[in-house]
Structures are given as C-alpha cells and as structure tokens.
Amino acid sequence: MNTELLARLDRKTGVIGIVGLGYVGLPLTLRYCEVGYKVVGFDIDPMKVEALKAGKSYIEHIQSERIFDVVGRNFYPTTDFSRVSEVDALILCVPTPLNKYREPDLSFVLNTMDSVLPFLHEGMVISLESTTYPGTTEEELKPRIEQRGLKVGKDIFLVFSPEREDPGNPNFGTRSIPKVCGGCTPACLEAGLALYRHVIDKVVPVSSTQVAELTKLLENIHRSVNIGLVNEMKIVADKMGIDIHEVIRAAATKPFGFVPYYPGPGIGGHCIPIDPFYLTWKAREYGMHTRFIELAGEINSSMPDYVIAKVAAALNCRSKSINGSTILVLGIAYKKNVDDVRESPSVFLMERLRDQGAKLAYSDPHVPTFPKMREHHFDLSSVTLNAETLESFDCVLLATDHDRFDYDLINQKSRLVVDCRGRFSEGASHIVRA
After folding, report:
1. 108 with 28: CB under 8 angstroms?
2. CB of 307 within 8 A of CB of 231?
3. Is the pTM of this model over 0.85?
4. 220 part of a folded domain
C-alpha cells in the first residue's frame, strides 16, 4: 500500500487534497498546482470557494493571476467534503485558536476530521499542519482514523508537518522554507517525505509527530520570549530617558551572540500570541509550570495597556483626555505590509480607546474595510491619509508601520503622534514614543 502511494506521489499522478484555503492552505495549494499535481481544495466558506472558482484572490500578497492560471485546470475548490474520497493525500490547514480560558481549542481540527472520516480510504497519507501541542496527532487523530478500521502505518499514513508561512516576507515563500515532518511510524514518515519533497526545496525528517509538534512551538515561543524581553527593556529604557531603538541598533552590530528583536504595542498573528499557551496547557499534564513562557506572555499581553497610558499622558499634557478626543490609528494589520488582522494588537488598542470614549478612525492601505471578526466589531473603513485628515485628529497613533505610509507627511501635519514602532526621532514636542 505504501509503495503504491509513494509511486503516485513521485510521478505526480496522486491527487492532493488541502483543507482550509487561508494564509497557509492557499499558498500550499498553488505550489502543488504549479509543479503539476491535481489539487482539490476544501473550505467551509462558500464565498472563498466562489472567489477561487472565479480566479480571484482574497489574500493581498497572492495575485489573482496565480489562481486564474490553475483553477479548473488542476485546481478544484469545493465545499463538498465527500470529494476527500478522490484524493491520495489530505493536508489539514485549519485554525487552532485558544478558547476564552486561554486553553487549546482543537474544534476546527476535530470537526474537520469528523467531516472527512467517512471518506478516508486505504493507501492515502494525511498531514496535519495546524500548530498544536505535542501528542495531538497520536492522541486525537490516530484513534479517530483507526475507529474507521484503517490501521495507521499500514492502511493509511499519518504525519505532522507544521506550517511555517510568513505572509508578506519577500525572501521566503512556501517552496524555500524548510519543512519539518514527523510520522506516526517509519512508513508514515516515508509517505510524508514523498508528499512534500517535490514542492519544498528541503524537507527535514524528525523521529516522531511529537518532535515535529514541539518544534513548531519552540520556534514561536522563542520569538514570544524575546519580544517579551525587548518590550520590558523598552519600558525600562523609557523610564531612563534612553531610546531603545538606538540601543537595539547598536547591539545589532555585534556579529555573534545577539539577534535583534523589536518592541511594539503587543504581538499579533495566528501563531505567536497563541502557540505558547498550547505548551503551557500540555505541560500541566506533566506537573510542570512554564513560568518563563507565561511571564513573556504576560508582558506582551500588557503592552496595549502601556500604550494607552502613553496616549492618555500625551493628551493630558495638551489639556485633553481620551474621552472625547479624536484618534487616528495607523495600521490595523498585525505586522507591517500585510492584510492580516488576526490577534492584531491594533485592534485591542482600538477597543480600549473606544471603551474610554475616544472617537476613532483608522488608516491602513492593506485593510480597506474593518473585517468581520469573531470577537471584535468596528463599523469602520480606512480613511485616506493626507494633510487635511492628519490635521483633523487630536492624536495619531502609529500601531503598525507599513512601508506605504508617508512618514514625512505624518510628522509634518499631525498635532500629536504616539509612536509604537520607533519610526520617528524623539525630540520634537509632538512625538511621543510608546
């Protein structure tokens, strides 16, 4: 069974199924199509599927032309999960958020598995790419598959291979980012390597799914902890009257032993604010309390409150309060030059300002209309950034430093700028670092 599957994947005659056509699944889909595989793309959102069928992209950094070139030729988007029966490989790229108690929410993964279970068949490989705690693949997916009478490692092959997409990064894409892969058995790993080796330049095998799962958590916890450190350093430096950005630039001249991280108003995206809590939750099963990881999370989560305090103090110096002031938030994406607002600290800033009575607007060239979100609601559209707009606000809050902003114009025409990103030089009376 394994030999036949490997042959189909190597000849590119095997059909690839990808569940979840978002920031992870859609680039991966296009990569498989571009090297010659047939791909059936699954998503529960009919609007996404209809857009793809029309050859249109809903992700800014993915050009519609790439979709138009493959849809109907070797890319078939659908909401019909019965078509899982047609595929030789099934890759799950669905969200793994936290619930309101900051605990892992595997509902998307498990609901997806429940949807596809009736259509699984012998001689296929399943890969979970969604970030999760060590043990998920073996403890949650494997038993469900084997309840169908399919023996993992013999009839069907199960791997974990975490996504490493970095939207908007011009230097690394789906093909060039090395792919870690761990299997439930050696035969599973062999199938996983065959699944990815023709679309990814370098596939990195590891000894188990648990190793692969923990690898992804370590990558993102590494970032979370270092961002927490530099955010705390920012607060200390501010109390001392020192420019933390100048300090970072100077430290970064050391050619070894130092990696620059940059402070901000918090952390966002689908990984760094969430993934550390998957490990802290699982560690409790082993009687462990991950103090270092949780402390970094606390510092990063507190940054929006620090920024709001800076805004309040800056307005107070001008005989104003947040209540009743007009505030323009620059950038609502979670990082520069992307259109992704998931877990964006800008959104948390906007909610805190709204709760304190501010009259809000935002400008973001990548997000023309405030998107529908499960927990955050604003009926706003991006305002045009020009001299008249800037002059009309009591405060301009730079939350996400997109390259498309005209920083000279912002500096010259704003009455007050609260800068969370270190884009403006301190010294001018209307610039406040936060």
Report:
1. no
2. no
3. yes
4. no
Amino acid, single-letter form, for residue 99: N
Residue 304 and residue 160 share a domain = no
Taking the C-alpha atoms of residue 177 and residue 412, their distance in angstroms, rounded to an integer, is 41
181 part of a folded domain: yes
Catalytic residue among 33, 271, 395, 420: 271
Residue that finishes a domain, picked among 189, 209, 229: 209
Q: How far apart are CA 307 and CA 309, in angstroms?
A: 5
Q: Is 271 a catalytic residue?
A: yes
Kindly tell me the sign of the dihedral angle through the C-alpha atoms of 170, 172, 176, 179: negative
Q: Considering only 13-22, 95-104, 223-232, 387-396, which range has the smallest mean pLDDT?
A: 95-104
Q: Give residue-wise pLDDT tens across range 261-313.
A: 999 999 887 778 888 889 999 999 999 999 999 999 999 999 999 999 999 99
CATH value at residue 141? 3.40.50.720
Number of domain units in the chain: 2
Q: Looking at the structure, do residues 290 and 360 belong to the same domain, yes or no? A: yes
Question: What is the predicted pLDDT for the residue at 1?
Answer: 63
